[in-house]
Amino acid sequence: EKMKILVTGYKGQLGYDVVNEAEKRGIQAVGVDINEMDITNAQQVNEVIRSGNYDAVVHCAAWTAVDKAEDLADVCRKVNVEGTQNIADVCKELDIPIMYFSTDYVFDGMGDKPWNEYDERNPLNVYGQTKYEGELAVEALPKHFIIRIAWVFGVNGNNFIKTMLKLGKQNGAVKVVNDQVGSPTYTYDLAKLVVDMIQTKEYGTYHATNEGLCSWYDFAAEIIRLAGIDATVTPCTSAEYAAAHPEAASRPAFSALDNKMLRCSVG
After folding, report:
1. 10 catalytic, yes or no?
2. Burial code of 41-74, b = ≥16 C-beta within 10 A, e = fewer?
3. Exposed e or buried b for every residue in 193-210, given b needs 16+ CB within 10 A?
4. pLDDT digits (tens, 9 = 90+) for 31-75
5. How confident is the model at residue 267, as a pLDDT?
6. Which residues contact 256 (CB under 8 A, 6 or more apart)?
7. Overall pTM surpassing 0.70 (yes/no)
């Protein structure tokens, strides 16, 4: 009998790719978004998950607007913490695995060696704090996967690449921070890993980013170059950016994740 999974946040870049990848491999994947299942509504979450007879829930839905989260902390917490708790509660009762996606923002970004799965969590902003609290809700379940991802881009949904292309075309110039470093990660690659992993019992916390490091400035310059857009890309510091955007959240400077557990489990 073929496996059946529920994928939340289906309209986002990761959820969309996960559903496609699962279907490609003969797994029945049901994608839901806020209209089909509002994760902040515990009763609705309960009904949708129970009625579907799922083997696992892949929970991609999240509040990801990092700057807005500073002003709208309650809304962000409702989605990222309460919403995750609602799903975790039902998964626990049904004894099915939950897969939750977290972020490099659970770390403070101080230092210069890539963060591993067991490093201490110390979020700098509201978004990071809510994702951390979501991790705690999921960790309480024996059957859980936590996958920390960072600097994610995909075909569906919004991301840094689309923003740079838009600004480059519109303004002919972009100014991008050069002192935040990480690993841009393609949702298509992530989706393959997700579908591999959800079929196993290798529960635990994993870091999953593509290899290599760059700054947001390096990334932007390469995006503009590859797109052949006639625009200048200028580096700036996080401090300069913060001065020009007082509403912006603090961000970790060194966001590189070490995919240590993945290497151990694969190798």
Report:
1. no
2. ebeebbebbeebebbbbbbbbbbbebebbbeeee
3. bbbebbeeeebebbbbbb
4. 999 999 999 999 999 999 999 999 999 999 999 999 999 999 999
5. 47
6. 104, 114, 115, 181, 182, 183, 209, 213
7. yes
**Long-range contacts, stretch 27-30, CB < 8 angstroms, 24+ apart:** 27/2, 27/3, 27/195, 27/199, 28/2, 28/3, 28/4, 29/4, 29/5, 30/4, 30/5, 30/6, 30/54
Q: Is residue 158 scored above 90 in pLDDT?
A: no
Type of residue at 243: A
The DSSP code sequence of 144-205 is EEEEEE-SEE-SSS--HHHHHHHHHHHHSEEEEESS-EE--EEHHHHHHHHHHHHTS---EE
Here the tokens at position 173 are 């110039």
Question: Of all residues in the chain, what percent carry a pLDDT higher than 70?
Answer: 99
Catalytic residue among 127, 132, 206, 241: 127
From residue 105, how far is each of 143, 175, 254 by CA, in Å?
24, 22, 10
65: CB partners within 8 A, 6+ apart: 76, 127
Do the beta carbons of residue 124 and residue 170 sit within 8 Å? Answer: no
